[in-house]
Amino acid sequence: MRSTLTIHKAAVEANLKAIKTRLNKGVKTMAVVKSNAYGHGLVEFATCIKDKTDWFCVVRVEEGVQLRENGIQNPILVFEIPTAERVPLYTQYNLTATVADISGFDVLKDGTEYHLNFGTGMKRLGFDASETSSVLEKMSSHSNIKCTGIYTHYANSDSNFDISVATQLARFNAIRAQFPSELMTHTANSGAILYHTDKAVQFDAVRPGISLYGYAPGVVEIPDLQSVIDWTSYIMQIQKVSLGEAVSYGSAWKASEEGWIATVPVGYSDGIPRVIGGDIAVMANGAIFKQVGRITMDYFMFFTKQPLAVGTEVYLFNREELIPDIWAEQTGTITYEIITGINARTPKRYI
Ligand SMILES: *Cc1c(COP(=O)(O)O)cnc(C)c1O
After folding, report:
1. Where in the chain is CATH 3.20.20.10?
2. Which CATH class is domain 9-213?
3. Low-confidence residues of the chain: pLDDT under 50
4. Where in the chain is the domain with CATH 2.40.37.10?
5. How far is the CA of 157 from the centre of ligand 1 (A)?
6. Separation between Cα atoms, residue 202 and residue 28, nearest integer Å
7. Is 93 a catalytic residue?
8. Is 55 helix (H, G, I), strand (E, B) or coil?
């Protein structure tokens, strides 16, 4: 194994607990495990928390199928708009569909359960408020399929930009009031759960994603969340480097002193952003080393004054000083992109 992602189950459970402590009594959790559980391994992650969450949410219907084929029995909500060729999967695998446009009512197979998605400020997927009466008509004319829930999604729960959570919530409440009261209602992503505890965003259930994996959704730190992954590899080769000798493509880095170059078999195809080449810290034998030269497709190198043994374990992430947030900041992106960028082929170990 060139590299391994080790997921600490106790840390995942602690994150789920941190979320639950913020919930009103009786509010259900719908754990968001889209995109390979944010890089943590869809089936493994879901299996780890299946007894501690009520629902799972995925984007792609195939992700729901994969969960079912691996023994997950919790209700599963699929966010994407169902396409004609995939609609049989919803009933076949007992997955809850999302209806977010008028054609959605006609495409679903008899017996499919669905939640309605209303857009209230995100302009991604969802009905517009002006379609409410047509939606109500379709709901009653299509008794072959069953509406069991209604939801919306916040554009700015992590900050306070133009369309605030309060604005979207007011829009949603006005829509919600026109639908049967028994529909399961949910709006809150991690940002809404963690940063908007003062507002009535929780309804019947919440949809935490990034916080489950231990990261704050915005710049405001959440002290009771913790990163759950170690990303480790090993030294594949160690070689002497003399003063002035160049390392990696472009010979962009040259040794300013004598020492050793350790080669680690992880590269940009595994998910290290190439742009931070020359600026990554890694850990081996408890010490921090500086990665040097350009990141290559399958390898990176680091400099060490003293030789280290071939086979020595190398940490790219360690849940303490080496966390994915640092790479996100260095590359001007969000932690979501760093963790979902870890190649899915990376073996996962749950301990
Ligand atoms: C991704 C997603 C979530 C989870 O968002 P986080 O910011 O990761 O908590 C919730 N709801 C919907 C519709 C999503 O697409």
Report:
1. 9-213
2. alpha beta
3. none
4. 229-318+320-350
5. 10
6. 9
7. no
8. strand
Q: Which atom of ligand 1 is nearest to the CA of 193?
A: 9
Instruction: Tell if the pTM clears 0.85, that is, is over it.
Output: yes
CA-wise closest residue to 351 among 3, 1, 2, 10: 10
pLDDT for position 126: 97
Spatial distance between the Cα atoms of 294 and 309, rounded to a whole number of angstroms = 23
Token pair of 12, please? 């995942």
Q: Is 34 among the residues known to form the active site?
A: yes
Q: What is the DSSP string of 58-90?
A: ESSHHHHHHHHHTT--S-EEE-SPP-GGGHHHH
Name the residue type at position 59.
V
Q: Which residues contact 286 (CB under 8 A, 6 or more apart)?
A: none
> In the CATH scheme, what is the code of domain 229-318+320-350?
2.40.37.10
Question: Which residue matches tokens 């810290």?
Answer: 281
What confidence score (pLDDT) does residue 162 get?
63
Q: How far apart are CA 90 and CA 80, in angstroms?
A: 12
| Cα-only R_g, the chain | 23
| Residue-level pLDDT at 312 | 98
Which atom of ligand 1 sits closest to the CA of residue 158? Answer: 7
104-112: list long-range contacts, CB under 8 Å, 24+ apart. 105/138, 105/139, 105/141, 105/142, 105/145, 106/142, 107/82, 107/83, 108/82, 108/145, 109/145, 110/144, 110/145, 111/144, 111/145, 111/146, 112/87, 112/145, 112/146
Q: Residue written as tokens 């969960």?
A: 67
195 Cα to the center of ligand 1, angstroms: 14
